[in-house]
Amino acid sequence: MKTTVLGLGIIGFEWAKNLHQDGLLHAAWNRSPKPDFPKWNNDPAKAIEGAELVILVVADPPAVDEVLKQIESSLKKGQILAQSSTISAEWTKKFAARVEKTAASFLEIPFTGSKPAAQARQNVFYAGGDAALMEKARPVFERLGKLLHLGPLGSASSVKLAMNMNIAMRFEAIQESLAFARAEGVSDEAFYAALKINTAHCALDDIKEPKLRNADYSPQFSLKHMNKDLRLALESAGSLKLPQLQRTKEQYDEGMRRGLGDQDFTVLMSLL
Questions:
Q1: Residue 150: left if φ>0, alpha if ψ -120 to 50, beta else—which one?
Q2: Residue 145 and which of 63, 107, 120, 179 are 20 to 30 A apart at CA?
């Protein structure tokens, strides 16, 4: 399928690069110009002309809204708009209605996995809505990772927020336990040797271990984007009590106040 990627951030850049290598990239666009990128087009409306699949991966609901305003009049019947940005179910349904008014199809397909997973084509895509639509787009997305259909429209967005809640809260626990161990005079080598055979151990620990050991906070998944996801989760939760999430969100807010938003979310270790 001829595929246009709208959004060349940390993840979209890697997807578009991989699709270009596979000969599937029709065009690429980003709000901040990247004219040296293969198949670059500085107009998103022109970038989607002739594309069968349009992957939209930007920061948040306002960014999705901004891009849709620029391309809505150019969407055509037969095109699939695959919305991969992390947003809430409420926003997903609003954007789906707008896209479907153009006669194009809307595919809800957020993902999990940071930059290393994108580079290795190992992202996991959560799809919601029409399962048949996911199957139409499968030939492209299988080149970028794995697909999992989760239910009706909105399901994938809710699961994505739930998974990021889990990552944020789980990782705050790892950072605090490591800070405690260091304060008690325990070496990082001893801490991680014990963690690797503890029932609490998970893949996230291994992925982020080098960052915590070396205080390397270069972005794989930025603090500002995780903070946005936690905010969307709390907004979606309404009256549901989520005390641990609320406390974790306070740590992210403090990181933002200190100007750490563009760094990897592991930078919160520096607050402890």
A1: alpha
A2: 63
For residue 115 the two structure tokens come to 């930059």
Residue 242 token pair? 């989520």
> Which is nearest to 92 in space by CA: 236, 240, 238?
236
Q: Which residues pair with 56 in a beta bridge?
A: 6, 83
Nearest 5 degrees, angle CA 96-CA 102-CA 104?
Answer: 70
Phi, psi of 186 (to 5 degrees): -85, 135
For residues 104 and 79, the answer to whether their CB atoms sit within 8 Å is yes
Contact 218, 208 (CB under 8 A): no
Of 42, 38, 47, the closest CA to residue 14 belongs to: 38
Task: Select from 5, 33, 35 the least CA-distant residue to 19.
Answer: 5
Q: Are strands 80-83 and 53-56 parallel, antiparallel or unpaired?
A: parallel
pLDDT tens digits along 3-57:
999 999 999 999 999 999 999 999 999 999 999 999 999 999 999 999 999 999 9
Our measurement of the distance from residue 65's CA atom to the centroid of its chain's CA atoms, rounded to an integer in Å, reads: 17
Kindly give the interhelix angle for 155-183 and 223-237, rounded to the nearest 10 degrees: 120
Please tell me the distance from the alpha carbon of residue 189 to that of residue 33, in angstroms, as a whole number: 43
Residue 206: helix, strand or coil by DSSP? helix
User: 137 in helix, strand or coil?
Assistant: helix
SS3 call for 70:
helix
Alpha-carbon separation of residue 131 from 95, 106, 122, 138 (angstroms): 18, 12, 21, 10
**Pair type for strands 80-83 and 105-108:** parallel
Cα separation, 148 vs 157, whole angstroms: 12
Q: What is the pLDDT of residues 99-114, one digit of tens each?
A: 999 999 999 999 999 9
Instruction: Provide the 10 A C-beta neighbour count for residue 41.
Output: 19
